[in-house]
Amino acid sequence: MSLPEQTPEKMISSFSPVVQLNVGGHLFSSTLNTLRSHPDSKLAEMFNGQNKPRTDAQGRFFIDRDGSHFGALLEFMRSETVPTENIHEVHREALYYNITALIKRLEETPQLFGELVGRQQFLSRVPHYKENIEVLIRIARAEAVAARRSTIMICVLPSKDDVGCYDDAISSLEADKESVVTFGPWTASPSARDLLDCVKMDIESRGYRVEIQPHVMERSFMSRNYDYFYRLTFSWW
Questions:
Q1: Which of 29, 88, 132, 218 is surrounded by the fewest CB atoms within 10 Å?
Q2: According to the 3-state scheme, what is the secondary structure of 38-50?
């Protein structure tokens, strides 16, 4: 004899009004109303009655994700309180759980507004910026064998006029020309130094230690001196 099919209404009624959660080993208690308060979120989907959430050995509903900042999400769903600490980490979790109201509120905070509206908008206008960051890291790691440091040459060309000087500038460079990584041009107000600050910030966010210094070229009476080149140094130990 087959069991009757469980309808969404019956599945919803099977949930206790108070829900015990295990988020990556962090334990939380909340209510169904709170967890369903943002209908488009993953939490609302998890407890919509059409899915059967996983449970741990003690019967708590289990979410296989780091729960270090899950409490901030719950607090927002309960009271719309926006966290003031760990903004970037909470924003990442809000994106994962698709809590759109919290995402919007966090992106209006000074910590994220400057990053998203200022820096990221600038970097979106720098051709191949993300790809160049990966190239820099790949070259540095390849040159790290039995070495304390890896040094890579960067060429920064902010404007189209600078691009027109590239061939002359690169021909005057004494370093290995094939390993030079070039950034630019871009149509935005930030300077070459601003671009280099972004490069340093994004590489260090990956756990590397780097320094950037201007590459000083030997001056000669007949040749023009170019200030497009910088030395990016990775320190391994």
A1: 218
A2: CCCCHHHHHCCCC
Average of per-residue pLDDT across 221-228: 67
- What's 178's DSSP letter? G
Strand partners, 229: 155
At residue 167, the 3 state secondary structure works out as: helix
**Strands of the 26-31 sheet, one edge to the other:** 26-31, 18-23, 61-63
Is the pTM higher than 0.85? The answer reads no
- What is the rounded distance in angstroms from the CA atom of residue 210 to the CA atom of residue 78? 43
Tell me the two tokens of residue 142. 């390849």
| Two structure tokens written together for 209 | 């230690």
**Each residue of 147-200: pLDDT tens digit?**
999 999 999 999 999 998 888 888 877 766 678 999 999 999 999 999 999 999
The SS3 assignment for 58 reads coil
Tell me the C-alpha distance between 18 and 15, whole Å: 8
Quote the crossing angle between the two packed helices 70-79 and 87-97, to the nearest 10°: 70
Nearest residue to 87 via CA among 107, 71, 67, 114: 107
First to last CA, the chain: 69
Domains of the chain, earliest start first: 18-108 (3.30.710.10), 126-235 (1.10.10)
Q: How far apart are CA 41 and CA 38, in angstroms?
A: 6
Question: Band of the pLDDT at 216, cuts 50, 70, 90?
Answer: confident
Is the N-terminal amide bond of 185 cis, ω within 30° of 0? Answer: yes
